[in-house]
Design a protein that fits this description.
6-stranded mixed β-sheet; 2-enoyl-CoA Hydratase, Chain A, domain 1; globular; about 300 residues; about 45% helix
């Protein structure tokens, strides 16, 4: 990169990416002084013995699942696995209003391309959480939207406070969801509840989430961290090999739905009808223009 561009991007980096936690790298400047470039972490990570914690750390963007955040998230899980972390807690900052706002709408493709391909970053994230060799506990304060719900439900245990709520939002923008994701919701919620959440895009509050089986535990916000850590420690006290095998067995058994090739092709063709549609483009445009979408069913 030419020097003038380097200094331009350095000067504007903090303005473009102003997140609360900073990491610093130092470069020599042409004047002989050290030039400090600030890189902001979208996730925070810590390890205490066999317990690892990942904190989503992009409150200005409501912890949306951008490619950058997903990359840092998966890197943290890789580091945890190498360090022998046996249980992971996934959380937002204390008192956060939005735990995760779902997939970053700014990264959705234009009509004509699948917005949620199997090899896309969102799918990779869900499979990385699912295949982590140890339980991942979602500790939830605040609302969870769209793909954030899929991320939360991919975790092995969910603990929430009274502020937790869950909204499945693809219908608000006109995004076709994946068959694997829909099966995931059906497995946990049952067919009728999954239909209601997808059709209405209405929030499910914490008490209803507990009754529906989304939350394993509902605890006061003041006790949330203590309760979740205590739950994690109870797991860590057990035989690690057995717990890891249990998780893999549950993962394999939850994939017990068989779909023939013709049905799979039909599902993909149905999804294409949606992401090729005018409504899909309208949903994205309305989001960027901060207005209600005007869907036409075309």
């Amino acid at each position: 990169m030419p020097c003038c561009l380097f200094y331009f991007y350095t000067a504007h980096y903090e303005a473009l990416f102003s997140y609360p936690v900073e990491q610093h790298d130092t470069y020599p400047s042409r004047q002989g002084r050290d030039l400090v470039v600030k890189f902001m972490s979208l996730v925070l990570k810590s390890i205490e013995g066999s317990l690892g914690t990942i904190t989503l750390n992009n409150p200005e963007k409501r912890n949306c699942l951008s490619t950058a955040l997903i990359g840092e998230f998966c890197t943290a899980l890789d580091e945890f696995e190498k360090a022998g972390v046996r249980v992971v807690i996934l959380r937002g900052a204390s008192g956060v209003k939005v735990w995760c706002s779902g997939y970053d709408v700014n990264e959705l493709p234009h009509p004509g391309r699948d917005p949620l391909p199997y090899a896309g970053t969102f799918g990779l994230l869900l499979r990385r959480v699912q295949n982590y060799p140890g339980p991942v506990i979602a500790m939830i304060e605040g609302s969870v939207w769209g793909g954030g719900c899929d991320l939360a439900l991919t975790c092995d245990i969910l603990v929430g406070s009274e502020t937790a709520s869950f909204t499945v939002t693809p219908a608000k923008i006109g995004i076709p969801y994946t068959a694997s994701g829909m099966i995931h919701f059906i497995n946990i919620l049952g067919l009728n509840k999954a239909k209601e959440m997808f059709f209405t895009a209405s929030p499910v509050n914490a008490h209803d989430a507990l009754n529906a089986g989304i939350l394993n535990h509902l605890v006061p916000a003041s006790d949330l961290e203590h309760f979740t850590r205590e739950l994690a420690m109870r797991i860590i006290e057990n035989a690690p090999l057995a717990v890891n095998v249990f998780k893999e067995q549950f993962t394999l058994l939850s994939k017990g739905h068989s779909i023939d090739a013709e049905t799979a092709e039909r599902i993909q063709s149905l999804r294409r009808i949606v992401y090729d549609s005018e409504d899909y483009g309208e949903g994205i445009q309305a989001f960027h223009e901060k207005r209600p979408p005007r869907f036409k069913g075309k």
